[in-house]
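Q: What residues go here?
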């Protein structure tokens, strides 16, 4: 048993309220179970409880055993001085206040229906992947869809947090913020943080001025990445190196030190050279990318914005000075989908949040038009008959698995609570 089960039992009063007595023999009447804030300190705040005819207003702490009070060192924490009732499953020791008065204890096991515990144990029994995998297909579709929407926005909140922080750090320079987070997305998981550092090192007014010539912007990005260090045989990298030296001097750009870019674990089309060139092409093609990203009404509109390709040199190269078979290296639909999922939707959510605009419905509609992601987690859910027809579905399922199932948070999950109720 975990404490979250007892939190659920107490919060929703899933126990008999008749004839309640503390282990000390005093009658208990619950007027208000308190607020479940899930933060530092007691589990429930501002409860109102009558104990032995005396009305108390204070906090409630919940443990599996009474002795857990001392195991968690609550006797030394002033946050617990105002606990008026100690809820436990098993009472195994007295718990005393600093003034040596005993804290009243309610032993819940005497008042909880054994069938509820059986249902909880069945839900929490070890399974191959997640606890409720065999019961998932029995979940009411209304409950599932509502929970998926909640999960989606939880995930969006997490993704929007660093965007909002950078907006704050840059004085709400949303153009610069978009530049940095798009760069991170172009770098994918392996090079994303390095791409972000490269973008962060460039004042956006410099980017704006130099983006009228794609070679200048490419020189800036390659130069800041360290890829122009060394000597080259081909004319193109030598030209980029000279441009970078000139632009750096013109704008008085300080040196930047970033991690080395990773080539080894990528397919050639995902090499950082190709992605940096495509990123430069994007910004040289759109002088007002921020407004376009904000105002795109459909996914098709977004695809049109991202119809760019690497510059001519990279059509026959993957690295400097090493020629390859000629190939047009445009952004693929699947790559643009990743940009929509990981940057555009969170960015639009963050921007709307900062301006007080409500965009929830339009963001859901946009992502429902994007193809579902392909990964092992989504495949597992499909094997349990949970469909994923769009990126909106897959983002919700990823949040469910990573933030709830993986941490065994069944009592905070709408699906877990539904199964507990139905069982």
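A:
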């Amino acid at each position: 048993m975990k404490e979250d089960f007892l939190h659920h039992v107490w919060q929703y009063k899933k126990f008999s309220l008749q004839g309640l007595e503390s282990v000390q023999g005093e009658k208990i009447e619950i007027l208000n179970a308190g607020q479940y804030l899930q933060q530092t300190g007691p589990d429930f705040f501002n409860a109102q409880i009558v104990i032995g005819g005396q009305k108390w207003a204070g906090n409630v702490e919940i443990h599996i055993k009474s002795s857990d009070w001392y195991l968690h060192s609550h006797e030394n924490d002033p946050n617990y001085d105002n606990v008026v009732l100690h809820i436990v499953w098993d009472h195994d020791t007295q718990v005393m206040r600093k003034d040596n008065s005993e804290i009243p204890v309610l032993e819940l096991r005497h008042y909880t229906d054994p069938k509820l515990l059986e249902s909880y144990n069945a839900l929490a029994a070890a399974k191959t992947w997640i606890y409720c995998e065999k019961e998932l297909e029995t979940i009411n579709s209304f409950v599932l869809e509502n929970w998926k929407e909640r999960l989606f926005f939880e995930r969006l909140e997490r993704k929007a947090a660093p965007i909002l922080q950078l907006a704050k750090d840059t004085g709400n320079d949303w153009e610069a913020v978009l530049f940095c987070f798009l760069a991170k997305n172009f770098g994918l998981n392996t090079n994303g943080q390095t791409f972000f550092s490269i973008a962060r090192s460039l004042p956006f007014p410099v980017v704006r001025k130099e983006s009228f010539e794609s070679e200048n912007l490419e020189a800036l990005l390659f130069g800041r990445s360290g890829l122009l260090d060394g000597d080259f045989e081909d004319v193109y990298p030598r030209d980029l190196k000279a441009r970078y030296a000139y632009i750096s001097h013109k704008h008085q750009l300080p040196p930047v030190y970033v991690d080395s870019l990773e080539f080894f674990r990528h397919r050639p089309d995902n090499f950082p050279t190709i992605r940096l060139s495509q990123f430069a092409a994007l910004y040289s093609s759109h002088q007002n990318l921020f407004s376009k990203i904000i105002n795109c009404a459909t996914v098709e509109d977004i695809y049109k914005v991202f119809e760019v390709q690497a510059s001519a040199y990279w059509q026959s190269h993957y690295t400097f000075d090493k020629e390859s078979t000629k190939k047009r290296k445009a952004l693929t639909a699947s790559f643009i989908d990743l940009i929509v999922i990981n940057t555009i939707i969170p960015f639009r959510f963050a921007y709307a949040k900062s301006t007080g605009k409500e965009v929830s419905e339009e963001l859901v509609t946009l992502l429902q038009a994007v193809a579902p992601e392909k990964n092992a987690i989504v495949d597992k859910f499909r094997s349990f008959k949970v469909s994923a027809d769009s990126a909106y579905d897959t983002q919700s399922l990823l949040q469910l698995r990573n933030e709830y199932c993986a941490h065994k948070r069944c009592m905070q999950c709408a699906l877990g609570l539904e199964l507990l109720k139905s069982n």
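A: Context that may help when evaluating the design: The radius of gyration is 29 Å. The chain has a mean pLDDT of 93.
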